[in-house]
Amino acid sequence: MGKPTWRTALSDRIPGGRDGRRMLTVTFVDRIGSGLWGATATLYFTYAAGLSTAEIGVLLAASGSVGIAGPPLGGLLADRVPLRPLLIIVQLVRAVASLALLTTTDLGLLLAITSVGSLGDRAASVLTKLYATRVAGPERVRYQAISRTAMNVGWAVGGLAAAAALTGGTVTVYRWLLIGDALSFLASALFTLGCAEPPSAARIAAKSTSAPGEPTASAPDDTAPDESAPGKTTAPNPWRDRRYLTYTAGEAVLFLDDSVFKVGLPLWAVTATSAPHQLVPLLLVLNNVLVVLFQVPFARFGATPHTARTSLWPLAGAFLLGGAALAASTVGAPWLAAVTLVLAATAFTVAEMLHATISWELSVVLAPPTAQGAYLGVHGLAQAVQRSAGPLAVTAAIAAGPLGWLGLGAGLAAMCGAQHHLVRDRGDGALSVAPVTVSEH
């Protein structure tokens, strides 16, 4: 046998085999399109569609609210139908929605189209996570870290391409960038065609219980027979699992680091500190570079369920440090303001990487295997809700001044403690929540 090449060695380090590598390509291509559109969406609606600032605000807020239904809907379907074709359909829906924006400037039609696109975006996110969870198995946290690296590189490529294209500054350029976004979804669908269907515990259990004369699949640890139907098991329902819903609500709070970077840091830097305005884009670049460099090493903080739960404490420390640094950035000379803003950006980036690792592991391990899609779909609500409510929370912190940032940091740290208490450690390295049975709820 020949000596393994560097390419073979790199492939061996990516969990999930060939399908895992192909899904990374899907993620990378998808995020290039998102980078193209994310950098120009407001400009497109302003100059190409002719909407006012107020109309754009209504459009984005309303479509974002509709998109909240995407994760639970996608997760629920993924437990009932094959995942690969479902993901392909969602990618095609996103492509059609993007191209449809080119056909009208009517606010009502644009609202309907962007709402469909938002549903597709949020559903695709949870479906991609579910696919990775199924193909990567026990190495899912490492895969998630590699996937986040691919996402950030894709975003950077798309953003740089958009920045270069925008030097033209014409309406035609905005339209071509939107077409590029649509083409990225089409390409993602084509790459997904080359992936195999991953195993699904929910569908295997459904087949085994529905086939006459065949042995019935045993119920997992966190399900119990339905007392009203002897001999049958009922799939756990996340909407009746109060503890998992509480965990998801806490996750919505911990995902606030996204709004801190997109809304809080830029506004605070230019309105409340003496730091040069040129520092703002550099803080976002710093965030991107740190994630690309360190997200994979940070996978060790979620290597096991017990480690993920324990890592909530350093996550709390990162949130506290970030809030304190932002509060201190209003004091002193411009150079001191710049240093504290860089420290805050670094702390919140560390929090982002830690939470991404912890959240991925805990959301999967707390979900019963036979209802994994439904549970992860509900967990996807955390990010969806944060994207709608997060900017309000961050702007409220800005309005409150330095004490607002101290309060936000302390609140996020307290939520880490609450999550640590909520997710139980049985003492053997395994985690549990309250058992999910039909008779209990």
Structure write-up:
There is one protein chain. This protein is mainly alpha-helical and 441 residues long. It contains 19 helices and 2 strands. Strand 1 (424-425) and strand 2 (431-432) form a beta hairpin. It has helices spanning 6-12, 17-38, 41-48, 53-67, 70-78, 83-100, 107-136, 140-165, 171-193, 201-210, 242-254, 257-272, 279-294, 305-310, 312-328, 334-365, 372-379, 381-399, 402-422, and strands spanning 424-425, 431-432. The protein has a two-stranded antiparallel ribbon with strand order 1-2. Helix 2 packs antiparallel against helix 9 (171-193), helix 6 (83-100) runs antiparallel to helix 7 (107-136) and helix 8 (140-165) packs antiparallel against helix 13.
What is the gyration radius calculated from CA atoms? 22 Å
Count of individual helical segments: 19
Mean pLDDT across residues = 82
Helix content: over 70%
Q: In total, how many beta strands?
A: 2
Structural class: mainly alpha
Query: Strands across the major sheet, in which order?
Result: 1-2
Kindly report how far apart the N and C termini lie: 59 Å
How many strands, what sense, and barrel or not for the largest sheet? 2 strands, antiparallel
Uncertain ranges: 4-10, 203-232, 433-441
Please write the string of helix (H) and strand (E) elements: HHHHHHHHHHHHHHHHHHHEE
Which percent band covers the strand fraction? under 5%
| Overall body shape | globular
Could you give a short description of this structure?
With 441 residues, the chain is mostly helical. Helices cover 72% and strands 1% of the residues. The chain is built from 19 helices and two strands.
